[in-house]
Amino acid sequence: MKKVLIMLSSMNIGGVEKSLLSLLSVFPKEHYEITILLLEKKGGFLNHLPNWVKVEEVDWYTSIKPIIMEPPQVTVKAYYHNRNYLKLLFFLSSYFIDKKFNQRYLYYKNTFRNVPNHKDYYDIAISYQGPTDIIDFYITNKVKAEKKISWVHFDISKHQINGKLYKKLFKEFNKIYVVSKEAKNQLTKKFPSYKSKTSTFLNITSTQLIREMSKKTGYLDESFSGIKIVTVGRLSKEKGQDIAIPVLARLRKNGYNVRWYCIGEGNNRKELEELINQYKVKHDFILCGSTTNPYPQISKADIYVQPSRHDGYCLALTEAKILNKPIVATNFVGAIEQIVNGETGELAECNEEEIYAKIKYLIDHQNIREKLSDNLSKQHVDTENEVEKLIAYFN
């Protein structure tokens, strides 16, 4: 059996974690011994990992997390207060050298100086949550494996990364998988020397499973007789929920009986709650929190909206397509690949004016909503056979 290590930060409820669960669901487990290595062994999807995989948590993350997450002044003060003068010297020298040359490699090298190498050897080691500096650095510098794979889930032209750092890190990977064609194009444009080892690998989705799960009980206010809009995504700036709130307020102001259900959790909740109060839509823009099964809510929606500022492929959009929902999506790279404007959904520029206009258009024209749903019902969306690419590469 081949030994495979797959590393990510946690099993929080999100698109990356869900794509991993989907990948594992079609994996030929009889031929592979898989270990999931987490920075923190937590998250709503943790109990959904199959029982045939090993799940481990690193024992070093708590020691470097403050250095990575906190401002450098805090780290300097902590070292000085604890009289760790040698660590202070190493930290300052690596920090200022990297700042001068606009790269982060020495900084991470110093931060990981006392982190031990991983104890086991693997046939394949995968940094699954790319680009994530900590995980990518650990896999390339601290894990021994015959082959190493970087799995990129984001459009790096929109996702801020340090180019000089990643020029070094990507060099150490044997293969780079990117979850959409355009995101792959953006990566190879920025790092042309790695084009030959970069490939597209679409997120795994199972049409049958999603449709079965959509039949389970899921909350949307059944007594509400107006238009129900659903959005799924982590509560964060890049997902664009802050744009959706004024759009809803404008729809309500102009007489449309609309309620917007926002499924997901994240760091932007407080900001969104303040916006909801500011625009006086407390009863109509509902922050539902996260769930491992959003499909019943999606299936009951009249319109599905994805207002992302940027995204890689966007698994939630694929799932809305599988459930044949009329879709409004902003024109990020993953949406452009998945939606034919006017045929299988409506694409909008990422601003309040265009998103409002597209939603209003679908509300006003039920026949268009029905046409979009009918066109989606004729599409084959299932991507389970993508796993064959991975198995072929492993072998």
Commentary on this structure:
- This protein is α/β, with parallel strands linked by helices and 395 residues long.
- It has 2 domains: 2-205 and 386-394, Rossmann fold, CATH 3.40.50; 208-377, Rossmann fold.
- The protein contains 17 helices and 13 strands.
- Strand 1, helix 1 (15-25) and strand 2 form a beta-alpha-beta unit.
- Helix 3 (72-81) runs antiparallel to helix 4 (85-100) and helix 10 runs parallel beside helix 11 (269-278).
- It is globular and about 65 Å long.
- It starts with a strand and ends with a helix.
- The relative contact order is 0.11.
SSE topology:
Elements: E1 2-8, H1 15-25, E2 32-38, E3 54-57, H2 61-69, H3 72-81, H4 85-100, H5 105-111, E4 121-130, H6 133-142, E5 144-152, H7 163-171, E6 175-178, H8 181-190, E7 198-200, H9 207-213, E8 227-232, H10 241-253, E9 258-263, H11 269-278, E10 285-289, H12 295-299, E11 303-306, H13 315-322, E12 327-330, H14 333-338, E13 346-348, H15 352-364, H16 366-377, H17 387-394
Parallel strand pairs: 1-2, 1-4, 2-3, 4-5, 5-6, 6-7, 8-9, 8-11, 9-10, 11-12, 12-13
